[in-house]
Amino acid sequence: MVLQSLWLLPWKVTLCVASFLLTADYGLAFTTKFGRHTPDSSVNSKSGLGQRGFSKPPSTKHAPFKSKFSSQRILLHPLATTSTTSSEIERQFLDEKQLDFILGYLNKHQGNALMKFSEAFSKLGAEKAKKNAWSGGSYNIASAKIVGIDTVSFELDVQVQIRNEDPIVERVAIDLDAMPVSKNRKLLGSGTIPPPVARDLDLPPIDEIVRRLCRLCWIVNEPDATGKLFQLGIQLAGSDIGRLKENMYLNQCPHNRYVRKYFYDMVADATLEAAILCSKGRISNRMKITAMFPEMNPSMDSYRIGTILEMIRTVAIKLVEQNLRVRVCVQGSMGVGIFTGVPKQLGGVSKLLQMMDWQSNEGEENEGMVGNYMNFGNIGAEHVVNAHVREDGTKVEQDDVFILIAPQSMVGVDSSIIASLKEMAEAAGSRPIILLNPDLTDKFSSQGQQNVRGRQDRIDFANTFETIWHFNNIYVSGTSYFPILGATFKPGPLNMWASYQRRDLAKEQGEMYIPIIAGEEKPQGDQILASFES
């Protein structure tokens, strides 16, 4: 009868009375997926990580949770959970060391980001906006503390200060794939909100958590936190993807052969992974690789064509080892009249490819594996070979993968590579077509004019090629390429982008690259510069 009559009272009074009756008279407590909690209760420090529910499935047998605000009320906010449902997603849990470290780090160093999370991804933000619309400052989020996290969601204890009332602590559960509930432009900015990351990447739990936290940081305009989170995943025994080798000394040219091999192997592994993903329909068959360390940067005097050819050889043999037929293509002569030719960067490359020793001799690593699986050609639909039988009865196998070396337009008339490249991409169908260090921007004509007709179509076509591996160094603005300040790196087709700052070790013991910003999109120059200065 008491409960039935509560509807006659004001809603705030009803909520307080109902809470008192449920907890006092009926002995009930608030229970969430992270454990069972009762107001103003104590914590058993020996109950293990089950009370935070992340190193093992959640249990309700441990001692109840106690907030550090022991003299204040702690409520489970009725509108706190996000709208994203996660019941069908399998939860994965961190081990004890990882959990303690990440909770301690976030609470100590990323308190501002945690407060923004509570405002952007829970109804607390909407409630704050509603109450402050009538009287500014009447409802404020004073602090937020993370109390639990797994690969699906995390929970925050948020201290809320309401004018003329005692502070309260409200527990909010936030999905790691949440979309913002708040529409506060000051909080979210005006950028595009990145969609949730796919959950079929087979990552370790710590990498899953870090990647999703980085996305939330970008949404609430906390990009500087992403680099530290990225480094945290590496330190806490993640997959180690994204760690750059120490002591590469890329300022020294020619590069050490071990440094070259380091890049060759990374590109080859990423290319094979991309080919496999393409065969499963996971990514587009139009791909590009950008390798712009000093020996492969044509705008520097350290440019070495042999490095490109060695990289192509490593990548091609990696694919051939999987019984894939590879065709390496270099664009032919373009232009009209005296302006006919090939880009300076590609001069003589086609002939050098033919002269390279592609056949492994007896006793070598790839003996008998290359055979006729390696072929060469130019860029154009006529160089795409499909399976057929010649007139003499000889069976011709189709090419499986196409690798195009530095396709680019030239200055002059009829010197755009886009038309030939587009025809070749269409002829290849669903087979992987991979561009190495492409430059698909429009060039001026020999009279200094730029063709505007069809320019947007050319830009749209160039954007259909997705990055599967990327590395470029960051330099001081201007024409100087010294010193190297850092690098931008994407280690694979499904991996995050990250920008790094190069730092010298103490007592000239070497150098290392420290991640400063990470996300699903390539960092822009102003974002990198701001992170360098912060």
TrEMBL record:
It holds the Pfam family DUF1995. It comes from the Eukaryota. Residues 265-528 form the DUF1995 domain. Residues 39-67 are annotated as: Disordered. PANTHER family: ADENYLATE KINASE (PTHR35509:SF6), DOMAIN PROTEIN, PUTATIVE (DUF1995)-RELATED (PTHR35509). This is DUF1995 domain-containing protein. It comes from Pseudo-nitzschia australis.
